[in-house]
């Protein structure tokens, strides 16, 4: 049987690497300018880290999707399904609460969930994650949302749609859950199986259901934003006022929820219609209480994450591709055995300024030029006995067909000139074929 990637995983090939790198570099630049510092945490943690962050009353789907395994020492470990819990574990372990607050941290890398594979959703996927820990002000919430919007703007992604809502304070949440149980319990058998379980454990998560019959039952009901207490309402109004004054486009969405018990007040999502019905690129919310739940100081925080694959998919759909693969400027062709080590040594020197490739065995001119063309190089640089006698190389422009003899000492300057002097395809001034 031919080996293949595990279902829900895939390879990022060399030609795809530039746009991935450009996305991460853009995020690093935008977030870094706001004082958000990068942190890298392990891809697996002790299972308890995620058990504590998910909680008993949370959506069981999250728990079922986690990859948990026992290592050789009998310890139960889990591949991270999201970044927040691991970042906050590191925050606690390294005493980061003693730093000036809020502490602003971002991360990027793979995460793992055993979910149904579909467009933009994989079992190993990648996220860019941001956490602002130690501040409870509405201004910090607005900054978190604005930073996510700023990253997408810097990536050149048009058509981004921001939705902002609130799940209120714990009392608001408890009151809303009681309201849903009271209204929906008599209609429990009309709910989907998943929603019946959510009604028992965490009714707020019912609002996330995609089942049409569930949505018909939910349509006439109040949403969390309708039943906010005065403090949570004032906080939400401050968030939206700040976003408005900064010119950050958004709409208020009464239905946005966050299913875990530690989520408080502000919740938000960013959507892009170009990636289909499941249009969310990312989102986040305030999670006051999570740090204490993990055994740390009782500090508030807010964070977000976006899916890298989904953002790249959206960019591709808009024709706004990121990053360019650096073109090989020159391919050095050894024409005899003595030239093989010579071109290898020359390539090492020239790579200080340019992307340079070379052959590893002697080739005749025809095959050497074919190798150079297949590499995607702009120039073929040929070296053999005649060039050695003249302390020179032959440089052939593979776009124009122009061919010149260049002294070895002059080759760096010649390459600089070519790199800075685009030649239109098909405009050839040629000195004829290689005299071989």
Explain what you see.
Strand 12 (330-334), helix 12 (339-350) and strand 13 form a beta-alpha-beta unit. By secondary structure, the chain is α+β, with helices and mostly antiparallel strands. Helix content is 36%, strand content 20%. It starts with 16 loop residues before the first helix and ends in a 17-residue tail after the last helix. It folds into two domains: 14-168 and 228-317, BirA Bifunctional Protein, domain 2, CATH 3.30.930; 330-419, Anticodon-binding domain (Rossmann fold, 3-Layer(aba) Sandwich), CATH 3.40.50.800. An eight-stranded mixed β-sheet has the order 1-5-6-11-10-9-7-8. Strands 13-12-14-15-16 form a five-stranded mixed β-sheet, sandwiched between helices. A three-stranded antiparallel β-sheet has the order 2-4-3. It has helices at residues 17-33, 47-54, 60-65, 84-93, 138-154, 170-184, 193-201, 212-218, 230-245, 290-293, 308-317, 339-350, 365-374, 385-389, 411-419, and strands at 37-38, 44-46, 68-70, 76-79, 103-112, 124-133, 161-166, 251-252, 264-271, 280-286, 301-307, 330-334, 356-358, 379-383, 392-397, 403-407.
């Amino acid at each position: 049987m031919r080996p293949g990637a595990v279902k829900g995983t895939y390879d990022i090939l060399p030609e795809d690497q530039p746009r991935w790198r450009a996305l991460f570099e853009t995020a690093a630049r935008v977030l870094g300018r706001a004082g958000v510092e990068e942190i890298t945490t392990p891809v697996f943690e002790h299972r308890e880290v995620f058990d504590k962050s998910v909680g008993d009353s949370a959506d069981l789907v999250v728990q079922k999707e986690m990859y948990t395994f026992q290592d050789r020492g009998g310890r139960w470990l889990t591949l991270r399904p999201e970044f927040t819990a691991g970042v906050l574990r590191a925050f606690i372990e390294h005493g980061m609460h003693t730093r000036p607050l809020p502490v602003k941290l971002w991360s990027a890398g793979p995460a793992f969930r055993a979910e149904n594979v579909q467009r933009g959703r994989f079992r190993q996927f990648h996220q860019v994650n941001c956490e602002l820990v130690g501040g409870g002000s509405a201004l910090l919430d607005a900054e978190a949302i604005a930073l996510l919007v700023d990253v997408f703007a810097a990536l050149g992604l048009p058509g981004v749609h921001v939705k902002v809502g609130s799940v209120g304070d714990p009392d608001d949440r408890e009151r809303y859950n009681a309201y849903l149980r009271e209204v929906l319990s008599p209609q429990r058998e009309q709910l989907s199986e998943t929603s019946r379980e959510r009604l028992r454990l965490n009714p707020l998560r019912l609002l996330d259901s995609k089942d049409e019959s569930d949505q018909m039952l939910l349509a006439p009901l109040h949403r969390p934003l309708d039943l906010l207490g005065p403090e949570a309402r004032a906080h939400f109004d401050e968030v939206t006022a700040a976003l408005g004054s900064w010119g950050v486009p958004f709409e208020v969405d009464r239905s946005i929820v966050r299913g875990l018990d530690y989520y408080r007040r502000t919740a938000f999502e960013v959507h892009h219609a170009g990636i289909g019905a499941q249009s969310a690129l990312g989102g986040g919310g305030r999670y006051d209480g999570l740090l204490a739940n993990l055994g740390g100081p009782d500090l508030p925080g807010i964070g977000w994450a976006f899916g890298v694959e989904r953002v790249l998919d959206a960019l591709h759909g808009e024709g706004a591709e990121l990053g360019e693969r650096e073109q090989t400027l020159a391919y050095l062709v050894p024409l005899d055995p003595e030239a093989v080590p010579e071109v290898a040594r020359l390539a090492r020197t020239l790579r200080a300024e340019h992307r340079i490739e070379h052959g590893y065995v002697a080739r005749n001119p025809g095959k050497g030029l074919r190798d150079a063309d297949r590499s995607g190089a702009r120039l073929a640089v040929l070296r053999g006995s005649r060039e050695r006698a003249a302390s020179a190389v032959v440089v052939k422009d593979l776009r124009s067909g122009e061919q010149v003899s260049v002294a070895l000492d002059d080759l760096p300057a010649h390459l600089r000139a070519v790199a800075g002097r685009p030649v239109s395809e098909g405009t050839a001034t040629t000195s004829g074929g290689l005299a071989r």
